[in-house]
Write a structure and sequence with these properties.
Elements lengths: L1 E5 L7 E5 L2 E10 L5 E7 L2 H9 L1 H18 L7 H5 L2 H6 L2 H8 L6 H6 L4 H5 L3 H4 L9 H15 L6 H9 L22 H14 L18 H18 L5 H21 L20 E4 L5 E4 L7 H12 L6 E6 L4 E6 L4 E9 L8 E8 L2 H15 L14 H18 L5
Antiparallel strand pairs: 1-2, 2-3, 3-4, 5-6, 5-7, 7-8, 8-9, 9-10
Helix pairs in contact: 10-13, 11-12, 12-13
């Protein structure tokens, strides 16, 4: 039978009685099903008395037991002998001996910080003194900020007040991977005008730029090359206009601009820039057939509400995947089409030279071209949708020999690696 003998609020370990034996109960980690795990180990009456009377020692004990719980993982047992061996040195020893003990064992720092530990004293190894102002109620945000500051210090980052204000404005002060947003209330009002001047510089730097959709990676994916261009434009402008900014602050503002542009792209309808007119200025009269590498097929017919290119990219966004990267557009009436190879940033245009019949096989002209990322694909698809294979002539060179084309593709890929150009 289990009964609670003494408990503090939150996740702080409890003293329980189990079949007449005093034990410490704490929750830590999770099992394979992501359910919280609990552990117990025996304590004595002297330990219980200190736990009840001294919040600081109680929290210190918790901090040294947590690493043992982490060692247990998702299904292992707590090393009770190791846990019991921590009791006397943490709860019953003199403060200077506790400090010395903490220099030799693993302990969880963030829990102590969240419960009000003096960070300066912790840094100096005076753990008992650091816990004199400890609070029973945790402040997780304090621990998060402390962790973020330690991580920045590890990377050698020094923030000025404006840098800190920019990170808080974008919501990036605690977590660099958090999706940024504009939070003016998080900034000291005295610094807000300067923050907004930096934001204005960034906005002017990327005015007119956009981050397009990239259906090759799904319906809501965006073009990472567009992202890199915008990010670079913002960085150059901030380095020129505000040369004292830390790299973290510059990155955060660029992240904000790009994230907002990407969100606009994801929520906007497909806009491929295709003109409705055909090569001679009239509307396209032929139907087009879209296919993928998995046997899916879809027809586009003139006169509908959407352009052929818009319909095609919708088709790609619905079906493109790591094992489905070859898509085709065919004008069956004219006997021509294009095949897009997303895995290689290349395209083949196919023209029927002689139709088959009377036992003869049809004869095709196949020409290969390199494609410059998603923007290049959009241009080529729109051109073909307007004017067929002939409309692709300006976007060459078009190479008929496969071996020659492969050499050209390898040279292009080597140049991209040398320049550090983002892959499309």
């Amino acid at each position: 039978m289990r009964e609670t003998v003494f408990a503090r609020s939150g996740w702080i370990p409890r003293v329980i009685s189990e079949d007449g034996e005093l034990r410490l109960l704490l929750g830590a980690g999770a099992d394979a099903n992501h359910e919280p795990r609990t552990f117990t180990f025996p304590i004595g009456e002297a330990h219980r008395a200190v736990i009840e009377e001294d919040l600081g020692r109680h929290l210190l004990l918790w901090s040294v037991v947590l690493p043992l719980c982490e060692d247990a993982g998702t299904r292992g047992r707590l090393d009770e002998d190791a846990a019991v061996a921590l009791l006397d040195p943490v709860l019953l020893a003199a403060p200077e001996d506790v400090d010395a003990f903490f220099r030799r064992v693993r302990w969880n720092r963030s829990g102590l910080v969240s419960h009000g530990a003096d960070i300066g004293l912790l840094d100096r190894g005076q753990v008992c003194a650091a816990m004199r102002g400890a609070t029973e109620t945790a402040n997780p945000k304090r621990a998060q900020e402390h962790h973020a500051n330690r991580e920045r210090a590890r990377r050698g980052v020094v923030l000025r007040p404006l840098d800190t204000a920019l990170l808080r404005y974008t919501g990036q002060y605690l977590h660099r991977s958090t999706v940024p947003k504009r939070i003016p209330d998080a900034v000291d009002p005295a610094l807000l005008p300067e923050v907004l001047r930096v934001i204005d510089t960034a906005e002017r730097a990327c005015a007119g730029m956009r981050i397009g959709r990239d259906p090759r990676r799904g319906k809501r994916a965006t073009d990472k090359r567009d992202w890199a261009r915008m990010e670079r434009a913002v960085e150059v402008a901030l380095r020129r206009g505000h040369p004292g900014l830390a790299a973290d602050a510059v990155r955060s503002v660029g992240f904000l601009m790009c994230s907002e542009a990407a969100a606009r792209a994801r929520n906007a309808p497909v806009d491929d820039g295709e003109e409705a007119a055909g090569p001679a200025g009239g509307a396209r009269r032929n139907a087009l057939t879209f296919t993928d590498d998995k046997g899916a097929e879809e027809k586009w017919r003139p006169g509908g509400p959407r352009t052929a290119a818009a319909e095609f990219w919708e088709f790609v966004g619905d079906r493109s995947a790591g094992d489905n990267e070859v898509f085709t557009i065919e004008d069956e009436e004219l006997g021509e089409g294009i095949q897009l190879h997303f895995y290689a940033d290349s395209l083949a245009r196919v023209t029927t030279l002689r139709a088959g019949g009377d036992g003869a096989e049809p004869e095709y002209l196949v020409e290969y071209g390199l494609v410059d990322g998603m923007g290049g694909y959009r241009t080529l698809v729109s051109a073909f949708a307007r004017g067929g294979c002939a409309a692709l002539d300006p976007y060459g060179p078009w190479i008929r020999d496969v071996a020659e084309f492969e050499r050209a593709r390898r040279r292009r890929d080597a140049q991209r690696r040398e320049e550090g150009t983002p892959t499309s």
